[in-house]
Each structure stands twice: as structure tokens, then as C-alpha cells.
Write a structure and sequence with these properties.
alpha+beta; globular; signal
Length: 162
């Protein structure tokens, strides 16, 4: 009887130690890495005061890894200021080839470059594996009745209609 109990305990110990939380952390860590990089973007800004969005090229989004499933997102815009979003969450979709990025941050904006103000903003994005297709959306509710800045790949900009 003691031998059976000993064998049962030994087998149970083997099964319990083979399942480790580290395996999950490795896969979560890899998700954040999938979106890290510098993105050249086309910017389209829409707000309630204009019927047609204002557009420009030459802006950048830089994403750096902060934690296992978090990143820091920096938006550097020529027209619409600068945005900083820390501890932004990254999650993979069910097929693991598309990633959702979302979080809160601050946009630094103003008409006079010497008098910029901070505005609370929300970032939501989708990035596909390989980072060639992406769509970032920054929403700033307290600017111009609600400002929505959409950032898409600069290479996908239509040649007319700017």
C-alpha cells in the first residue's frame, strides 16, 4: 500500500511540475514584440467642424516594448501634435496573425507651438503580422468637438483626393 501511495505521489508531482506559467508568459511576451517598430503613416484628422478630413503625410508612430503584453506608443505629427501612450495593451486575435493595440494617453497640441496643452486621448489600433497593414485611431474628445486621427500606411495613400 505504501509503495502504491509513493508511486501515485511521484507521478502526481511529475504532472504538476510539467505545467508551468512561464510557458504562457513566453507566448504573451512574443505578442508585444510583434508590433514593435517605427511606422511611416498617412494622417487623416476628422472633427465635427469640417465636412472633409484634413490629411497629411510624413508622420510617424514608434512602438517600443514595455512589458510582457504592453508597449509604449509615440505619435509624432507635423500638424496634429505629439501623443504619448504608455502601458498600452497588445493582444493577438484567434488566428495569431492580427494584433489589437489599445490604451489611454496624452496628446500635446496647440495652435501656437510655444503654448501647447495636454489632452486626454484614447488609442485603438490593429496591426497585421509583418506590420505592413495597420490602422491606428487616436480619439481626442475635448478638441474641436471630438477629434479623430486615423493613421494608415503611407504606402497605401491614394494618389488623388488629398
Amino acid at each position: 500500500m505504501k509503495l502504491k501511495l509513493f508511486l501515485f505521489m511521484a507521478l502526481a508531482g511529475i504532472f504538476f511540475t510539467s505545467c508551468s506559467k512561464d510557458e504562457k508568459n513566453d507566448s504573451v511576451s512574443a505578442v508585444a514584440e510583434k508590433v514593435v517598430g517605427v511606422y511611416d503613416v498617412h494622417t487623416s484628422a476628422a472633427f465635427s467642424k469640417t465636412p472633409k478630413p484634413m490629411e497629411n503625410d510624413g508622420d510617424k508612430v514608434t512602438i517600443t516594448k514595455m512589458g510582457n503584453n504592453t508597449v509604449k506608443v509615440i505619435f509624432a505629427g507635423k500638424t496634429w501634435g505629439a501623443g504619448a501612450f504608455e502601458n498600452v495593451t497588445v493582444a493577438a486575435n484567434s488566428n495569431g496573425k492580427q494584433y489589437a493595440v489599445s490604451g489611454q494617453g496624452t496628446m500635446k497640441m496647440g495652435m501656437d507651438p510655444k503654448k501647447l496643452s495636454d489632452y486626454q486621448a484614447t488609442l485603438k489600433a490593429e496591426v497585421t503580422e509583418g506590420k505592413k497593414n495597420f490602422n491606428f485611431k487616436i480619439t481626442v474628445p475635448s478638441v474641436m468637438g471630438g477629434l479623430a486621427i486615423t493613421l494608415t500606411p503611407a504606402a497605401n495613400v491614394p494618389q488623388s483626393g488629398k
